[in-house]
């Protein structure tokens, strides 16, 4: 299957008075057409900054230092602001973490969805308004005509998230980036949003980059998984390889899996945790970035940095000792 998006050895840094913050530090990953890539890791692992790099949504002191991003075979990391404005919202759309801060509180839902359609699709105001209502129907919003005239503060969290999805999919993008889109929602609404995204993916054929810290969501949503730590991809594989069918695993992925609560676990047993915390990007450790927290680390791990190497077809791990040591 053809690759829709390819990221090769991407380095995105922040320039600060204290030095370079290596937010994205050599990331390589790809997304196939019609597939969902789940990107998982703790806060500060570089997931969101990788997504921002794809769309070049940068702060003033941030830029790509090395590597490339290819979309449909074109190197979009070299695009200027005008060229990127044609890609954003049209070919690649993004759903942000918190819809209340992403939607403009002083404009109606119709104004915000219609603006995307008039800008990228050349629709008239009337055509855009009608299509806006159709998109609200597509994301299963009751009373779409009424919601279309509403302001974000008049809607619930779940409805605001559906509006964000409607806006992101209005131009039928080839790639949808969803940055923790269910974090602020309760479990019932979260399940509805995940089901809706899968349904729309099947209907529209849109590829999805789904960013989350929740491996349970990844298991439900993704075809492939990329595990990130300290701005690097430490493991990438088909979803079944990560969760069950593999002789190899990165210790960080193992730690994430063993820290998930299970219904069949003895109540008296303690939940496993990964010791320590993600290091500050201005003070990254020598060698393997996960070595200070890894119970399997050796002298080699602390001195030398491992490369991302394939351990089986489609399964690559950044580790000197990636053998699975126990059942998850």
From TrEMBL:
It is a peripheral membrane protein. It comes from the Bacteria. The keyword Membrane applies. The keyword ATP-binding applies. Residues 5-255 form the ABC transporter domain. SMART domains: AAA (SM00382). Its main location: membrane. Keywords: ATP-binding, Cell membrane, Membrane, Nucleotide-binding, Transport. GO terms for molecular function: ATP binding. It is found in: Cell membrane. PANTHER family: DIPEPTIDE TRANSPORT ATP-BINDING PROTEIN DPPD, OLIGOPEPTIDE TRANSPORT ATP-BINDING PROTEIN APPD. NCBIfam families: oligo_HPY. Belongs to the ABC transporter superfamily. This is ABC transporter ATP-binding protein. The lineage of its organism: Bacteria, Bacillati, Bacillota, Erysipelotrichia, Erysipelotrichales.
């Amino acid at each position: 299957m053809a690759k829709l998006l390819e990221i090769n050895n991407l380095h995105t840094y922040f320039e600060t008075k204290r030095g370079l913050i290596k937010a994205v530090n050599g990331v390589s990953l790809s997304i196939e057409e019609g597939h969902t890539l789940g990107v998982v890791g703790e806060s500060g692992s570089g997931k969101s900054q990788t997504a921002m790099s794809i769309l070049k949504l940068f702060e003033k002191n941030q830029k790509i230092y090395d590597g490339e991003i290819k979309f449909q075979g074109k190197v979009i990391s070299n695009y200027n602001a005008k060229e990127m404005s044609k890609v954003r919202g049209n070919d690649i759309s993004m759903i942000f973490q918190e819809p209340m801060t992403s939607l403009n509180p002083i404009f109606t839902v119709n104004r915000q969805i219609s603006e995307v359609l008039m800008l990228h699709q050349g629709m008239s105001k009337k055509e855009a308004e009608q299509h806006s209502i159709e998109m609200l129907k597509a994301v299963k919003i009751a009373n779409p005509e009424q919601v279309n005239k509403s302001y974000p503060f008049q809607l619930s969290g779940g409805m605001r998230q559906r509006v964000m999805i409607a806006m992101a999919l209005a131009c039928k993008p080839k790639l949808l980036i969803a940055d923790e889109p269910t974090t602020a929602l309760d479990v019932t609404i979260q399940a509805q949003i995940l089901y809706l995204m899968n349904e729309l993916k099947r209907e529209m054929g849109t590829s999805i980059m789904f960013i989350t810290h929740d491996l349970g969501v990844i298991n439900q949503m993704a075809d492939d998984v990329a595990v990130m730590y300290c701005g690097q991809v430490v493991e990438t594989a088909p979803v079944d390889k990560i969760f069950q069918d593999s002789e190899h695993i990165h210790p960080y992925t193992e730690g994430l899996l063993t820290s998930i609560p299970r219904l069949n676990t003895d109540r008296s047993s303690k939940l496993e945790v990964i010791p320590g915390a993600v290091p500050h990007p201005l003070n990254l450790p020598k060698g393997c970035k996960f070595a200070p927290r890894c119970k399997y680390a050796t002298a080699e791990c602390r001195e030398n940095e491992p490369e991302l190497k394939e351990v089986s077809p489609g399964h690559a791990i950044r580790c000197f000792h990636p053998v699975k040591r126990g059942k998850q």
